[in-house]
Each structure stands twice: as C-alpha cells, then as structure tokens.
Amino acid sequence: MAVPPIVASIAALRARLAAERRNGARIGFVPTMGALHDGHLSLVRETQNRADKVVVSIFVNPTQFAPHEDFDRYPRTLEADAEKLAAAGGTDLIFAPSVAEMYPQGFATKIDVGGPSHGLETDFRPHFFSGVATVVAKLLLAVMPEVATFGEKDYQQLLVVRRMAADLGLATEIFGAPIVRETDGLAMSSRNAYLQPDDRRVAGQLNVVLKRVIAALHNGEPILAAEAEGKRALLEAGFASVDYVAVRHATTLAPLDSLHHPARVLAAAKVGNTRLIDNMAV
After folding, report:
1. What share of the chain in percent tops pLDDT 90?
2. Where is 241: in which H helix or E strand?
3. Which residues pair with 149 in a beta bridge?
4. Measured between alpha carbons, how far is 138 from 197 in angstroms, rounded to an integer?
5. What is the pTM assigned to this prediction?
C-alpha cells in the first residue's frame, strides 16, 4: 500500500483538508510524536470509526521536555512511521512539521491548564502540561478536526486536553482509546525501546503491581495503605525509583479517601534510565 501523503506546512495541510471538506468529509485526527507502535495504530483505527478522513501528525514537541529530559534522543523515525501507517491502512494524510513551523521566531504564547493538570505528573515535570496543551491547541487549530483520539495510557494528559478543548471552545470532540499492551501487560510506549533486556523484565511488573493495588482496594484496604504497598512492591520488583502510585477520581483526578466515586490508579516509576507510566480503572 502506498505511503500516505506527507505535508510539512500548516498552509499545505489546510489546503488539502479544505478540498476534503468541500466533498463533505468528516476529519479525524491522531496526534503523535512518532516512533509508532501498535498502540498508535489502534488510535488510527478508533478514529476511522468516527471520521471519513484521518490525519496523523508526527512531531516531537520540544516544549514538553525539560532540559535534562530525552528530547535529543527521542526516536525520530518518520520514514518507518509512514510505512507502518501505510501497512495498517486508514491514514489519509501525515502532518510532519518542523520545529520552526510550529514555533516560528518570536513565538511567545503558552497555555496553562488548571484542574486535572495539578499534581501527579506536574509534581515531577512541572513544565510538561503547558507544553502539551500549547502544541495540542496549535495542532487542533491547524487541522480543525471534528474528532481527535488520544490514548488512555497518558490518562492525565487526556483529561488535560479535554479540559483545554472545552475551556477554549474548540470544535473538536476528544476521545480516549484503551491502552494497548504487550503480552506481559506492559503498556506500549515509544520509550519501551530504551529498555535493556533486564530492565524490560522489570518493566513488565508495573501492570502486575497495579492489579494488586486494585485487588487490595476491592478487599477493603484503605487507599493510602494500598498506594504505599504499591510503591513498595515496585521497588522490590527492581524499579530504581517510584514517583507515585496514586488512586484518584476518574474524571477530575482529585484525591480520594474512599471508593465512593469512579476511580483510577495511576503510577510513574523509573527502571534503569527509562521512566514509565501506566494506569488502570479501579
């Protein structure tokens, strides 16, 4: 199957999509940072169910990386990504802008989202959600899709994007798609490519520990005790450090003192030099 057309400028993107809209097409959008895997391809399939044409963006966004993080070594595999999208089918256009296209000289705007951005990732990466909200807003304004799909692996990010889109009155419906996992339950992530064999075996315990936390909660364990036990179990499994294991309200991410509301358990931990995140419904 032929590789989908690739455009690098917002002007070219809008020109192509204007033609589709004149033909009555409903546009769906999947934003990615590339290094695509089956989890990304599942987002394309989800979007196909809600749109006539699907745009996938591939852009490693510098504003969501702190100076000490992995921006320079983050995988950049545009040709391979385009081939994966072609083989999977369903992608009609790839938007692969440069940093200069997204952040031209003199760019001076950022978006800060309250609510679900407080705590968890923000406690350890205070720059992160401002960078995410800014680039996602720019991408949504460039594509102007009717629907956009984000993976639930980045659960807090999904809620931040929903809040941002609602607060700014963006005419895009934001959907979340289920986490796609490896055979041992590890959530698929582009950063899994960093894992050495021994670290990969340890990484497979993250989802196992989250399931134990959920089981403990259902057996009546207090939330704080279940969270503490989850952290201890991850360290015992070989994780180098644990940023958080937290049980939160599923739609607001507010802390909970009981399971009288829909809940989500979220975790972030480092194995070797690789930081992994995961979450599950309680």
Report:
1. 96
2. strand 241-249
3. 175
4. 38
5. 0.95
Q: Tell me, what CATH number does 86's domain have?
A: 3.40.50.620
- Catalytic-residue membership of 249: no
| CA distance linking residue 65 with residue 73, whole number of Å | 11
Q: How many angstroms separate the CA atoms of 270 and 157, rounded?
A: 19
DSSP string over 128-156 = HHHHHHHHHHHHHHHH--SEEEEEGGGHH
User: Domains in the chain: how many in total?
Assistant: 2
Which of 40, 127, 260, 261 is an active site residue? Answer: 40
CA distance 248 to 216: 15
Q: What is the pLDDT of residues 57-92, one digit of tens each?
A: 999 999 999 888 989 989 999 999 999 999 999 999
Average pLDDT, the chain: 97
Structural domain range at position 98: 6-177
